[in-house]
């Protein structure tokens, strides 16, 4: 019945006597009998005004999501009120990506509402799986950078840290990936086509952002109009970030761009329709898509505007929050910590300086000191092309005041270098922010912050010793390492409930918020009963994945085979192509000796290639061609199978990772900053075959290298080979490598597709094999043989898997965030009361 109002039932559900709320979360305060039911029924009736016969799973999903949001809203508001009252130092995390995945199931788990939700699903005879499928993955990110940001928000809320995430509300995300005839095809990912029940629009807190020029659309191209200033309006949309137990509910604020209120409606309705429409389109386009096509000047320009829009909106908002309780500008670093997630928000240095100089009226020395002490920077890459540089001309057009500030920062920075290394103009040029008509954003971020951290021990070392060596020597005290982590709430408790149950039965549930407790599993690696339960959990995950894959794609896989996975962005340095060469080698072996004793294997690939990255798209095509060839060959069918899973996202990862036996982490050593998929696989009991790169090195140290399958060149060997490496040597001297390349380049997998064959020949041989595929192929195959041998001994394999799970707690994002809070932010928990 829905006669009683929702508000009345909400009031009735609150405690009738005073209580100590200091340790109370949402789950503690819910009247579990009928309150959620009443909310669900009310939303079903009032939100869509449909008769019961016309209500579908989408409407049921929205009703369920809004019911859960209603339950957490009081505590969400109370979290904000506590921060305002207590005025703690607050953390603001700026990122161009937040790959948050689906929210309903995650919020139910973090609010510990599983029993309540189960009763509701049962009482209303709801298909839980079908309803959860109605929620699209939020199109707010692409890869590890965005997923890390999402894990960090989860950890900060769980650890009761006063924090807020800032990002952009991309209307279409990156793109929806289809595979057509083996090729990647991009379609718009219209994830906001239906209302998002988790977001709350805050138009009353909109921000106006001023630019130094205007824009027009002519002939389908975007063109700047110099000398005519313009504005964008940033409209905030808030999403709840629920800490485990619901004690703290922080906020992710996403900015959408719009036209100012003084938009000329008369012109739009009666004058030059095209010009007026262009003004609206250019404003709305700013947050239309994630990662515009960087192969065009228009795409790169839009990216530049996006980055400034994020920074300007976020800093205006957080400064407003700071000033509401802190009249003294000099207390800014004591009350505000701003973390820049990679180079994308580096304009925060110039924007904060502009605010302190022009709005606060501070002197340069004071403003610069406050800026550096407030900002901190995380570097996520060693690739030069990812260390963004923007043309000075763009600053002249759009942000002339910021350019003035950057020029002055550059002058001071070069003077510091000259004082440190007198007469060495080359080093001053290396540390400089300006050069060759460009503004180097990583240099700006390092110069304008008090901390620069890498995200794995090897990455942080190479960052200091190679990528920004001169800046690291100029400011050695600013450089540190913070190895990445993942949240065990989503990646074990939610994604793998059977395994999580086995662990909790064995050691209790404290591991959920203290993943170091997973080491309590170490003594159980030889316990037959526990080994059997872990093996059963893995088999159940494989069966569930098999059933899901068959139902959604019609693809049949054998759960008795080794599930061997590589899931990540498609890039040459991540070496999906090397994995493909391994599969061709195994194919060759079976063709030469059909009686060869080889474990049946299913190879899973997933990941997107940037639309303009032609080689990456060719690699996808090659992998799909290998899959088709193997499926059509009776000599190997049933023993090898390759599956490329399209449109990789968080929800797919939550299904595949628990089901996987093997994790491929095979980047060229010295190129991967950290990786986080490696940690997710490890925590779910998959064994790693990989190179000594990124955080995989530390994972192997934690679990013991004997429990990993490591191979290949080290980062030092890769760097040392750049002057002399010749892939032809491997072709001419290694018989199996030659056989693999001969078959590949014969067109066996790419019949009538010379474009693919020629591209692969260029990548692997003619182009010099930049990423050392051929140097590591032989060692990769040797490691693969060790893997197959161990898999044939199930008890040893399971023991190894348990040792990996037990050692994975070090890679919890809670540990990472604790290090950020203690060593960079100097921020303390602020329990909600």
TrEMBL record:
Keyword Cell inner membrane included in the entry's annotation: no
Residue positions where N6-(pyridoxal phosphate)lysine is found in the record: 680
Tree of life domain: Bacteria
Signal peptide residues on this chain, from the entry's feature table: none
Catalysis: reaction(s): [(1->4)-alpha-D-glucosyl](n) + phosphate = [(1->4)-alpha-D-glucosyl](n-1) + alpha-D-glucose 1-phosphate
GO MF, one annotated term: pyridoxal phosphate binding
Keyword Transferase: yes
Entry similarity comment: Belongs to the glycogen phosphorylase family.
Function statement: Phosphorylase is an important allosteric enzyme in carbohydrate metabolism. Enzymes from different sources differ in their regulatory mechanisms and in their natural substrates. However, all known phosphorylases share catalytic and structural properties.
Protein name: Alpha-1,4 glucan phosphorylase
């Amino acid at each position: 019945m829905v006669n009683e109002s929702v508000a009345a039932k909400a009031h009735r559900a609150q405690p009738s006597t005073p209580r100590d709320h200091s340790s109370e979360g949402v789950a503690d305060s819910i009247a579990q009998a009928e309150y959620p039911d009443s909310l669900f029924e009310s939303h079903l009736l009032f939100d869509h005004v449909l008769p019961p016969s016309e209500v579908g799973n989408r409407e049921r999903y929205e009703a369920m999501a809004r019911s859960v949001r209603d339950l957490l809203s009081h505590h969400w508001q109370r979290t904000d009120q506590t921060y305002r009252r207590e005025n703690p130092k607050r953390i603001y995390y700026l990122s161009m990506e937040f790959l948050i995945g689906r929210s309903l199931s995650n919020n139910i788990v973090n609010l510990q509402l599983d029993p309540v939700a189960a009763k509701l699903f049962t009482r209303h005879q709801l298909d839980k799986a079908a309803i959860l499928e109605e929620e699209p993955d939020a199109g707010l990110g692409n890869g590890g950078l965005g997923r890390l940001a999402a894990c960090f928000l989860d950890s900060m809320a769980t650890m009761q840290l006063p924090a807020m995430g800032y990002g952009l509300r991309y209307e279409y995300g990156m793109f929806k990936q289809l595979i057509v005839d083996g090729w990647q095809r991009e379609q718009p990912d219209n994830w906001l086509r239906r209302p998002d029940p988790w977001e709350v629009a805050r138009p009353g807190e909109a921000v106006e952002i001023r630019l130094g020029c205007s824009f027009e659309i002519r002939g389908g191209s975007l063109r700047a109009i110099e000398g005519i200033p313009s504005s964008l309006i940033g409209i905030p949309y808030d999403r709840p970030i629920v800490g485990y137990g619901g004690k703290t509910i922080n906020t992710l604020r996403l900015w959408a761009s719009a036209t100012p209120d003084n938009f000329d409606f008369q012109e739009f309705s009666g004058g030059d329709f095209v010009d007026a429409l262009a003004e609206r389109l250019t404003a709305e386009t700013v947050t239309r898509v994630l990662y515009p096509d960087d192969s065009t000047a228009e795409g790169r320009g839009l990216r530049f505007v996006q980055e400034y829009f994020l920074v300007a909106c976020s800093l205006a908002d957080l400064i407003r929050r700071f000033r509401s309780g802190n009249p003294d500008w000099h207390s800014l670093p004591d009350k505000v910590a701003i973390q820049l997630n990679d180079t994308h928000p580096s304009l925060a240095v110039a924007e904060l300086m502009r605010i302190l100089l022009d709005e606060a009226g501070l002197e340069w020395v004071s403003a610069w000191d406050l800026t550096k002490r407030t900002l901190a920077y995380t570097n996520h890459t060693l690739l030069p092309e990812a260390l963004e540089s923007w043309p000075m001309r763009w600053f002249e057009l759009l942000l002339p005041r910021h350019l003035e500030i950057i020029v002055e920062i550059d002058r001071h920075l070069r003077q510091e270098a000259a004082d440190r290394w007198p007469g060495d103009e080359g080093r001053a040029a290396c540390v400089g922010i300006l050069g060759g008509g460009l503004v180097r954003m990583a240099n700006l971020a390092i110069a304008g912050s008090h901390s620069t951290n890498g995200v794995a021990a090897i990455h942080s070392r190479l960052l200091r010793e190679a990528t920004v060596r001169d800046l690291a020597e100029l400011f050695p005290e600013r450089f540190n390492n913070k190895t990445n982590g993942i949240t065990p709430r989503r990646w074990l408790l939610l994604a793998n409930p059977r395994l999580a149950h086995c662990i909790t039965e064995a050691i209790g549930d404290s591991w959920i918020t203290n993943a170091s407790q997973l080491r309590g599993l170490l003594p159980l690696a030889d316990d037959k009963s526990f080994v059997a339960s872990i093996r059963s959990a893995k088999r159940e995950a494989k069966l569930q994945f098999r059933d899901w894959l068959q139902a959604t794609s019609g693809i049949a896989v054998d759960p008795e085979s080794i599930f061997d996975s590589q899931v990540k962005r498609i890039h040459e340095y991540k070496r999906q192509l090397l994995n493909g060469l391994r599969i061709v080698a195994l194919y060759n072996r079976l063709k030469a000796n059909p009686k060869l004793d080889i474990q049946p294997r299913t190879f899973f690939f997933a990941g997107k290639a940037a639309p303009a990255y032609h080689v990456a798209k060719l690699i996808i095509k090659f992998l799909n061609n290998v899959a088709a060839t193997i499926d059509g060959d009776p000599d190997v069918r049933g023993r090898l199978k390759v599956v490329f899973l399209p449109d990789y996202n968080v929800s797919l990862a939550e299904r595949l990772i628990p089901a996987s036996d093997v994790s491929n982490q095979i980047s060229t050593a010295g190129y991967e900053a950290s990786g986080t998929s490696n940690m997710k696989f490890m925590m779910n009991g998959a064994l790693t075959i990989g190179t000594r790169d990124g955080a995989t090195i530390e994972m192997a140290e934690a679990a013991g290298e004997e429990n990993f399958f490591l191979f290949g060149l080290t980062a030092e060997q890769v760097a040392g080979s750049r002057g002399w490496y010749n892939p032809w040597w491997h072709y001419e001297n290694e018989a199996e490598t030659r056989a693999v390349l001969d078959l590949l380049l014969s067109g066996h997998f790419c019949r009538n597709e010379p474009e693919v064959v020629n591209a692969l020949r260029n990548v692997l041989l003619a182009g010099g094999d930049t990423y050392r595929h051929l140097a590591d192929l032989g060692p990769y195959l040797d490691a693969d043989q060790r893997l197959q041998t161990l898999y044939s001994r199930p008890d040893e394999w399971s023991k190894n898997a348990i040792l990996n799970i037990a050692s994975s707690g070090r890679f919890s994002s809670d540990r990472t965030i604790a290090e950020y809070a203690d060593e960079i932010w100097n921020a303390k928990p602020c329990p909600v009361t």
